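[job 0412] stage=fold_complex status=start
inputs:
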Amino acid sequence: EAQVTQNPRYLITVTGKKLTVTCSQNMNHEYMSWYRQDPGLGLRQIYYSMNVEVTDKGDVPEGYKVSRKEKRNFPLILESPSPNQTSLYFCASSPQGNYGYTFGSGTRLTVV
Amino acid sequence: QKEVEQDPGPLSVPEGAIVSLNCTYSNSAFQYFMWYRQYSRKGPELLMYTYSSGNKEDGRFTAQVDKSSKYISLFIRDSQPSDSATYLCAMTFGGGYQKVTFGIGTKLQVIP
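[job 0412] stage=fold_complex status=done
writing structure:
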């Protein structure tokens, strides 16, 4: 089945403890992207990648890192999480970003 | 002013009604326009995308883009209770620039 897989689905962590949210797609898509979704603010793009080793910032990149060493994987790294990064995170992939993305099921992160 | 404005609703309609969902935007450089549906606790699902102005139809769904007015619409004919979800508009500049801007989403409830 064609899909974007994120792990974990739920995560509670403490301030300052480094964490990684994994994302993998099995559709051989060139483009991948990370979003966060917050009530009243909607979906906001954190980072995107147009190919292996090619990444760029979205609207809210502060406090996040990404890497694209393989085409299928696009992990999101929070080096020192803070409570304001508590949110619902989505990874997405696309063969050609302007035609829309396939989204994962989401990761609900709580930073205490 | 937000780049993309979308009424968050909620919008309640009786089953069988025609639903009109809308977004306005401020940046005339947007070229590609997408509509996503998001059920509660799920990732967004791409419904349709259009390029530049015009209409596009897919089953009960019609997407309309009026670039002169910076206004896009999604029409749902013969609405069903299963259409109850949040509908998000999204847009990109096209080319290799992959920044995606979403509206906040409109919550729709179709009442049996």
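[job 0412] summary: The radius of gyration of chain B is 14 Å.
[job 0412] exit 0
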